[in-house]
Amino acid sequence: LTQDINNVRSQAVRFKLKEIIKLKFGVEHVDAAEFIINHESGFNPQAVNKSSGACGVVQALPCEKLPCELSFRGAECQLKWFADYISNRYGNPLNAQEFWRTNKWY
Q: CA–CA separation, 65 vs 4, rounded Å?
């Protein structure tokens, strides 16, 4: 049952990511954003990297810069933070994905 709940939550986070990315960047950027989040956290808003301390669905580093709850309830906040971070640092998710593919981080 717990695995089923986690799968449903993961799908809900994925759906919300698509919604946020479409509105901010356009539908052509959704796959790139999904690629990054899938590789970073597998769509788990409670994820914490034990070696680096990066956290959340977006794996913010340091974790303290993420102004969101590390829970399913905080997932939308985390995804909005992700969209703003991508916009400010890379311009868009396609550029961020290109950087991730080269460096294995973003």
A: 31
